Amino acid sequence: MARTTAFKLSALYLLIFAIFSGIILGYIAWNTRRLLDAQITETIETEINALAEQYRQGGLRRLVAVIERRGRQSGSFLYLLIDPRGDAMTGNAILRVPVQSVSPGWSEMRYNWPDEGEERGRRAKVRTFILPSGLRLFVGRDLEEQDRLQITIRRARGLSLLLVLLMGGFGAWFVTRRVLKRVEGVATTSAAIMAGNLSQRLPVTNTDDEFDRLSLHLNAMLDRIGELMTGLRELSDNVAHDLRTPLTRLRNGAEGALRKAETLEEAKSALERAIEESDHLLRIFDALQMITRAESGNLATSLKPQRLEDIVASLAELYEPLAEEAGLAFDTRIGTDLVADANRELIGQALSNLIDNALKYGVKPAGEGGSLTITAEKAGGQIRIAVADRGPGIPEDKRAAVVERFVRLDASRAKPGLGLGLSLVAAIARLHGGELRLEDNAPGLRAVLVLPEVTDSAARTLAPGIALPEKEA
Amino acid sequence: MKILVVEDDPEAGRYLARALNEAGHVTDLAADGEAGLEMALAGSYDVLVVDRMLPKRDGLSLIMALRAEKRTTPVLILSALGQVDDRVLGLRAGGDDYLTKPYAFTECLARVEALARRRNPQSAQLTYKVGDLELDRLAHRVSRAGEDIPLQPREFRLLEYLMRHAGQVVTRTMLLENVWDYHFDPQTNVIDVHVSRLRGKIERKGQATLLHTVRGAGYMIRDPGR
User: What is the predicted ipTM?
Assistant: First the structure.
């Protein structure tokens, strides 16, 4: 119990609360006392002024008469006038101090009323004067009232501190319990998730507080992990399946050649086929590795502001002869100032895959009137690079599937390909914070690479290219 | 040519060394990074072929140590890490070219020979001449038998690269890397179409063949007279 964060937080909260309450209450008590003290001083001061006035007007006799009269009133000041020998001339109080040696000014002393016995005495605040004739005048005020108030305040202080502690304790316990209950909820759920139940999600209360945001982030993370796990599982199934085929072909070819090849020529051509087959396998591995790298986000640091029109133009130029050779009308419409955070190599690879697909699948069976159009433009903070063909296209319900790894629509797999091209493009798009959209070109397919545009003028100052060693000049 | 191969896998190392020997080069083999650095500093090699992951001292550190000693011997990095950022790291460390394992030996040989040629001062010429084909880098002019051949800028760079490596095999990936500056695998014969177009422009009917296709490797431009 004492080790839980709830307890520690409550205790800490309470301690701080108590310290501050104590300081505030103490300050109030001290201030009250000071105020009372000042008040007493002031009343004594006023009384003394009045007495001085009487003395000035009527001399000693008048003073004595005034003191005697005033001294008899209830709740009066206490007065004492003594002659230089120490005998009381008049007064209403007996001071329990050696009166002759009291120096003039303020002091606190004990006294008794004449009708009281000689007990411990009462406290009084007294001002002492020495009159010109050597007489000493004491004027004071009882402090009992002040003491009583002091006691009341002290008692109230103790009580309120206790109350504060109780309320604070309860408050702290309530708040921390409420907070930690939600933390506990997160802990319980994550324990369930760790135990293997990946479908569990953290509770969200829709209050949009810090805990909700934490839960939402963690849930998004869990979704992503779930996706990756599913992807990984499917991938390993697909890898097993898709690698098995070429590996079997490779093995059968080698075995067949070993058994049947009689001439050197036959053996050589079997070996060449084996190399081709292994190259194909290596390409599959390369593509898979590339997809994994792009999806894991490892390459995100390699993104630099780039002019995408340059990349698109160079790819278009690279593929134009091939498209014309395939009998396609080749057309490009490339905008300007298309700046995005990009990796030139990866964008180039993605476009190469898209154009490659268009060349492979975008040709009309009759071989007539096909076209390949590459466009790049920006709109609404996005850069859209599209590769459009006039081939059979992809039915809407299959578009999501072709982006998956190893999915190829021609069941016969007659055309060469890895079934990884679009997956890689999609992974590259995601790495760049964008997406791959497959749209109907009516007829044909339009594959659109949508990337976020860099509009911030500071970021647009194009980073200098990665310093490669000088090419052969 | 004298070549040092630094490769820790004994089979891969022996295979590469033997193949380079068969291609007419003298080859030494080092099995770890320390030995490789020592031999590279002691001997005078034309090209180093360095594996990236080596025991004792990794390939990149070897190259950096070599460059710190002001040795400019060209280095071809071999690596199983073929991704974009790895290549950049390798070249930044002072490597001159980068080849991903597994590779075709013809690709490796072509690159080693291209690197060795780079040291040769004649490679920085302003004009190239192969047979009766001439290329002027300053004037951006190409002519054959005295007759001007108009070329697109990219075709010009393609021909320039081929002629700079005249008599050597130039692979398709080398062309993609050096003429287009892309390092990915295009998976199609995209380079072949560019080369055949170029060939159509520089070789008229009745003229001798200069631009040859080397089966299973790439292309070579060569003086028919030699």
Answer: 0.79
